């Protein structure tokens, strides 16, 4: 009777082993790629940076428009009374002449005139005009346009930097979720095994074939695995919440997973190029902008030349005719000759800033290279841990198979079989952890050398 139950328990054990180690097809991580696209499209921080980019594009458009003519319309109307006057002796000059003419003609055709007092302030006077201005030579406008254009490049780089960091977080969270879900599956499969052991031990105890110790141990093992399942499920929930948070969607949404059972490509272990890092690109663009600022500071040496044209009409009582219309064309030149060293100090500030950016670039490049080497060392360690875990898994599997065979033949006790089961389950868990640790380390390297292709 006891051999029957042991044979049944052994058969159950082998079925669990077969299911756990069945070969799965290797698939590309298509679901993860879809999640990365979704996360980038829905991320609020990236949207905010995109709005800043849009603002910079408009600023560049504004800078370009400064090279084009500017047309404005203005008008003034003046109503005046009192104030200074000019006395004009019209009567004194013409009245004697008019009197003589009246005597000669025998008529009164030439009236007597009064002296005039003319108000200097124009009364009931208007002046309406269109003014067209066109810069001809202005170095400041050219440097301003260059700076605005580079600020767009700087903001684009900032957006890529946000995306790259988000990709790293999404991939790491995804692998942590897979690690937790696989651990839960391992515990659940092991629970079936120990539950069957508990059932068989109870039968054997009821038939007086074994003592109470085996029953108690099997019951304790079931309780321990149930507790481990609950803890693993909570870890899985936390990983699920964080992953969905990164994708800006409901925290409890289901996560579709890829089948990952192989190591990542180790080619990244030999790639020590950090020139693609956005941090270095930002510093390079900042240096270019600073060079333009230096040129802007030196632009005072070049005179500013512009032209303006006024087309308008001015007159009294809102009269508009050929005599009221006018045009006024002008050429202006402005040349800053002396400013008590203000421009010189501004140039020296830009040169000092340029030197600071150069020094910072060298430091950041060395810092990024150090980070990459550390990430590569971590991946090498993770790969070594995984290979050791695989060796331990194979050994524990063989050991468990041997103990199950001995137990079936009645040559060992249940406690020894239970110990072999625990070693086997621990090896599975460690293999699962180390597998995804290698992918997390690989993700860190992708971030360190900016090798992931950002769409």
Automatic annotation (TrEMBL):
The keyword Manganese is assigned to this record: no
GO molecular function, one term: porin activity
GO CC term, one of those recorded: cell outer membrane
Key words of the record: Cell outer membrane, Membrane, Signal, Transmembrane, Transmembrane beta strand, Transport
Gene3D superfamilies, alphabetized: Outer membrane efflux proteins (OEP)
SUPFAM superfamilies linked: Outer membrane efflux proteins (OEP)
Signal sequence bounds: 1-28
Protein family: Belongs to the outer membrane factor (OMF) (TC 1.B.17) family.
Record protein name field: Transporter
Taxonomic lineage from the root: Bacteria, Pseudomonadati, Bacteroidota, Flavobacteriia, Flavobacteriales
């Amino acid at each position: 009777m006891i051999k029957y139950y042991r044979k049944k328990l052994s058969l159950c054990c082998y079925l669990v082993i077969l299911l756990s180690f069945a070969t799965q097809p290797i698939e590309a991580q298509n679901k993860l790629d879809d999640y990365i696209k979704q996360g980038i499209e829905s991320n609020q921080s990236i949207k905010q940076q995109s709005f800043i980019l849009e603002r910079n594009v408009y600023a560049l458009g504004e800078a370009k428009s400064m090279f084009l003519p500017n047309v404005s319309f203005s008008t003034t109307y003046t109503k005046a009374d009192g104030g200074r006057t000019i006395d004009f002796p019209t009567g004194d000059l013409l009245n004697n002449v008019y009197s003589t003419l009246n005597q000669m003609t025998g008529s009164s055709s030439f009236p007597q005139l009064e002296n005039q007092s003319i108000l200097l302030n124009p009364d009931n006077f208007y002046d309406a005009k269109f003014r067209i201005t066109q810069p001809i030579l202005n170095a400041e406008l050219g440097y301003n346009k260059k700076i605005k254009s580079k600020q767009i490049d700087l903001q684009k780089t900032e957006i890529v930097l946000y995306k790259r960091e988000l990709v790293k977080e999404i991939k790491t969270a995804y692998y942590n979720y897979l690690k937790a879900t696989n651990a839960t599956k391992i515990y659940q499969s092991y629970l079936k095994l120990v539950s069957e052991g508990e059932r068989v031990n109870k039968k054997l105890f009821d038939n007086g074939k074994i003592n109470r110790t085996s029953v108690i141990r099997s019951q304790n093992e079931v309780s321990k695995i149930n507790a481990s399942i609950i803890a693993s499920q909570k870890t899985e929930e936390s990983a699920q919440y964080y992953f969905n948070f990164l994708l800006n969607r409901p925290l409890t949404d289901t996560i579709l997973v890829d089948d990952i059972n192989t190591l990542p490509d180790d080619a990244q272990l030999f790639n020590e190029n950090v020139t693609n890092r956005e941090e270095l690109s930002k510093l390079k663009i900042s240096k270019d902008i600073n060079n333009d600022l230096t040129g802007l500071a030196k632009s005072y040496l070049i005179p500013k030349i512009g032209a303006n044209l006024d087309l308008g009409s001015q007159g009294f009582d809102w009269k508009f005719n050929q005599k009221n219309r006018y045009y006024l064309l002008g050429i202006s030149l402005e040349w800053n000759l002396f400013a008590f060293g203000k421009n010189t100090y501004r140039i020296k500030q830009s040169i000092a800033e340029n030197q600071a950016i150069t020094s910072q670039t060298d430091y950041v490049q060395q810092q990024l290279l150090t980070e990459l080497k550390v990430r590569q060392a971590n991946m090498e360690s993770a790969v070594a841990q995984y290979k050791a875990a695989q060796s331990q898994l194979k050994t524990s599997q063989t050991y468990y198979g041997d103990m199950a065979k001995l137990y079936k033949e009645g040559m060992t006790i249940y406690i020894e079989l239970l110990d072999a089961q625990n070693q086997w389950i621990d090896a599975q868990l460690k293999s699962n952890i180390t597998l995804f640790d290698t992918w997390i380390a690989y993700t860190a390297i992708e971030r360190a050398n900016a090798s992931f292709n950002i769409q």
